[in-house]
Specification:
single chain, 19 helices, alpha/beta
Length: 502
């Protein structure tokens, strides 16, 4: 069950020490709004006064007030948590950052050192700003279940019926319906307004309050889709926009999930090829196909082995897949996959639950709301449209990934039971959109490279291709870094295609 939620987008954050990331900036606890005109019923949001507080970690923080429902801005309001790290030089603007998700905290991205992946020239040129999107973390967080036990049952509870059967599809539908009812009961009417278009409108308020006439933006993974939606809504306000680890212009649809399943299958085979070359540490024997068969058997057997974590949670095949795929985003994490398999073979499931818990935001027995926010955004955005049938959805994923496909399937039920209709998007007015920059990696397991090409075509954007492995590229490849710096710092509009090789 857990991988049904975690198959959406997650950016890999590389931490640095706060001291190393802080730079030498002097305190600057103000910002001057642009003062731009707007519709009378939203003017108060664009002209509000911000109160910035400088924290011990050299970050400024504030709260931005926005409408709960942008269609009725005179109604209830919510607060959006925003953080800013002042530039290390003389800043000439702000760079708004979204680290991915949906459901990931931009506040955590900066407070936990994620800005260490951003190159020094960009940190000198821009104030780095990030935020918790509506419904996430510190910004009116959505909740579905109130207790750890309820969350454990939802995310780790076994599905009794065999995958792909009619009984399995019925069981999943009932579970998803119960989950949707719990979300509605606990979070109320805010749940309806957790969508990418509403977050993009929040971003425009943040832009104006920071004093930027145009939005300079860096989006990773799902953050690229959020940037695309902003460009559709506010094309004349787009400045320099970098979209790394691109999601295609249609968002994370069911067709995208099939491509992602194929991406994880390819990544797993690359891992296995590397693993079997080391006969001393690899938990599998023989060649690549033999190793894949052994791994698939170990995964499928997890449901019947009755292996339990120290807290009593029982290991399922889906939980094991969640743990494995969480380590396939970056080649440097491959040794952790070996550790997982070796531990399961000796009946130690602690490393598996550690990885799955990290993926679900479960820390010391308490959950963040990353999964709750993620499902809300996915379903409100219409990316997971109803499948033709549970069998078709299941078979499509199994065909794309013989190892993981059966455990990535939601039987077409994830958003089929959601209490609200999908939101419409306005489409793109490319005539007023400046040239943006899209980055794609040829062996990206989470956002397959073809999506970067399709997004670049949709936005008539420059494209940077990194031939290599991993999810997102800026901050870990010198060639990509140069292209981004030339664009963000020097203002050199990207050529049609920059090719890099790791």
């Amino acid at each position: 069950m857990s991988q049904l939620v975690r198959s959406a987008l997650v950016a890999v954050l590389v931490a640095c020490s706060l001291a190393a990331c802080a730079g030498g900036s002097t305190p600057r606890l103000t910002s001057t709004p642009t003062g731009e005109d707007g519709p009378a019923n939203v003017e108060r949001f664009y002209t509000q006064k911000l109160t910035w507080v400088r924290g011990a970690d050299n970050l400024d923080s504030t709260k931005v007030t926005v409408p709960s429902d942008w269609a009725h801005p005179d109604g209830d309001t919510i607060s959006i948590a925003v953080v800013r790290r002042a530039s290390s030089g003389a800043a000439s603007g702000s760079l708004l950052i979204n680290p991915g998700g949906p459901g990931q905290s931009g506040v955590d991205f900066l407070t936990q050192g994620g800005d260490g992946t951003i190159t020094a020239a960009v940190r000198e040129r821009y104030d780095l700003v990030s935020f918790d999107p509506r419904g996430v973390g510190r910004s009116a967080p959505v909740r579905c279940y109130r207790s750890t036990a309820e969350n454990d049952a939802w995310l780790y509870g076994p599905v009794a019926a065999a995958p792909g059967t009619d009984a399995w599809a019925s069981e999943l539908e009932a579970r998803y319906r119960g989950h949707a009812d719990a979300c509605l009961s606990t979070s109320g009417k805010l749940l309806e307004h957790l969508d990418s278009a509403s977050t993009a409108r929040d971003m425009d308020v943040i832009r104006a309050l920071l004093g930027d006439k145009r939005l300079s933006y860096l989006g990773y993974s799902y953050g690229t889709f959020l940037g695309t939606v902003y460009a559709e809504l506010f094309p004349s306000k787009v400045g320099r926009m970098v979209l790394d680890g691109a999601v295609g212009p249609d968002g994370p649809s069911r067709a995208w999930r099939v491509r992602q399943a194929a991406g994880f299958e390819g990544a797993f085979r690359s891992y296995l090829a590397d693993c079997v070359a080391d006969t001393k540490t690899c938990p599998f024997t023989g060649g690549l196909e033999s190793a894949r068969s052994q791994a698939a058997t170990l995964i499928s057997a997890a449901d019947s082995r009755a292996l339990e974590a120290p807290d009593g949670r029982r290991l399922t095949s889906t939980t094991l897949v969640t743990a494995i795929t969480s380590y396939l985003y970056d080649k440097q994490l491959w040794p952790q996959v070996t550790t997982l398999f070796a531990a399961v073979k000796r009946k130690d499931v602690t490393p598996v639950f550690d990885a799955a818990d990290a993926s679900h935001g479960r820390v010391d027995g308490s959950y963040s709301n990353v999964d709750d926010a993620q499902v809300a955004v996915l379903c409100n955005d219409r990316p997971l449209e109803p499948a033709p049938s549970a069998s078709d959805e299941f078979q499509g994923l199994v065909a794309a990934s013989t190892t993981f496909g059966a455990y990535l399937s939601d039987g077409g039920a994830l958003c089929g039971t959601w209490p609200y209709p999908a939101r419409e998007r306005p489409g793109l007015d490319a005539g007023t959109l400046p040239r943006t920059l899209v980055i794609g990696t040829t062996e990206d397991p989470a956002t397959p490279y073809e999506q970067a090409r399709s997004l670049a075509a949709y936005l008539t954007s420059g494209l940077v291709t990194l031939t290599g492995y991993g999810h997102t590229a800026y901050g870990r490849d010198d060639c990509v870094n140069r292209a981004v710096e030339q664009y963000l710092v020097d203002g050199r509009r990207p050529s049609s295609h920059v090719q890099c090789r790791s």
